[in-house]
Design a protein that fits this description.
The protein is an alpha/beta fold and 333 residues long. Helix content is 42%, strand content 20%. The protein folds into two domains: 13-139 and 261-288, Rossmann fold; 143-258 and 293-328, 3-Layer(aba) Sandwich (Rossmann fold).
Length: 333
């Protein structure tokens, strides 16, 4: 009997100690707009950085991971949920998530990632001059380099098409930037707007009918999630398709210039650790990616009538010969 009572007391003691430890764990709310491949890579990179620096979910930190499933109201609800739960930090992956977090709180530290223009989203005025509770990694893509690359691959190209999502300020930002940079290399940007991911397939078909020479699909969260629809249309119509994010070559693009989003997430995670360890977001400059990588898909290129010179093949950081047979090249070049 005494032994049973002792075991019961020990179990209760362990339960309450466990509950107490759980309650005091530093809590990080991580959320993303949708299941777009680049956002998933960022999330994984953030968590990997935490893990590599000794922070494990349920052991010495608590992670609350959410997905807005492409719904702005849902993203806003999640941000408010984080505030109500009194999380210690919010990691906002994507422009819509950053906007929602900024509306929800001015007190909880916000670390953002995969945001094309954080200043347009309201995070501040420059890398050094930003809101006191906000910092992170900006993801403005290499639009100028991408369009110059297309012009080199297809010298006779004049009209380049793209889809865009008016409800995403990052998408509008990229569209205007593409128009501006396109004029510098004698490329007219032909655009078709979409309202949601269900329209991507039909809108891509509409774009093909606008007598374009190629598609340069600017990166936005809604279209990236359904990029394979664009890839299928390009392949069926033998139209060269260039992606705005590296993983697009696995979804039908013949080539893409951009950032390693896993690396971006890892950098974001390291910033989060600095803030957890006591640094103020106000003292951490907003960072930007700098190393442009090139990914090629030779199978897609063949379908789309594109040939890469040996020079471009040597520059590539990854060459995908088929969907099942990627050849990884050194990122040190």
């Amino acid at each position: 009997m005494k032994k049973s009572v002792a075991l019961l007391l020990l179990s209760l003691s362990l339960f309450f100690c466990s509950k107490k430890n759980h309650e005091v764990l530093y809590t990080i709310g991580i959320f993303q707009f949708n299941d777009a491949p680049h956002l998933n890579e960022v999330r994984k990179g953030v968590i990997q950085a935490l893990w590599d620096h000794g922070f494990q979910d349920g052991i010495n930190i608590q992670l609350e991971i959410r997905n807005g499933n492409g719904s702005t109201p849902e993203v806003q609800r999640i941000a408010q949920e984080f505030v109500e739960k009194e999380v210690d930090m919010i990691v906002a992956i994507s422009t819509p998530c950053l906007q929602a977090a900024l509306i929800a709180t001015h007190e909880i530290p916000i670390i953002f990632s995969s945001v094309a223009n954080p200043y347009l989203a309201g995070a501040g005025r420059s890398a050094q001059d930003h809101m006191r509770t906000v910092t992170g990694v900006a993801s403005r893509g290499p639009i100028q380099q991408s369009l110059a690359f297309i012009k080199e691959i297809i010298p006779g190209a004049k009209r380049v098409g793209t889809l865009w999502t008016p409800s995403e300020i990052n998408s509008e930002f990229y569209l205007e930037l593409a128009r501006e940079e396109g004029r510098k290399v004698d490329l007219e940007i032909v655009d078709v707007p979409i309202a949601n991911k269900s329209q991507v397939l039909h809108s891509a078909q509409v774009l093909i009918n606008k007598k374009i020479d190629a598609i340069y699909q600017i990166s936005d969260n809604t279209i990236n999630e359904s990029f394979q629809d664009v890839g299928n249309v390009a392949g069926e119509n033998s139209i060269p398709l260039f992606g705005g994010f590296l993983l697009s070559t696995r979804l039908g693009a013949c080539a893409a210039l951009g950032w390693d989003f896993s690396e971006m997430g890892y950098t974001t995670g390291e910033i989060a650790i600095r803030v957890k360890n006591g640094e103020r977001p106000a003292d951490i400059p907003i960072q930007s990616m700098s190393k442009v990588r090139i990914h090629l898909n030779l199978s897609a290129a063949e379908k789309q009538g594109v040939k890469f010179s040996d020079e471009f093949l040597k520059k590539a950081n990854e060459i995908l010969k088929s969907e099942e047979n990627p050849q990884y090249l050194s990122d040190s070049r």
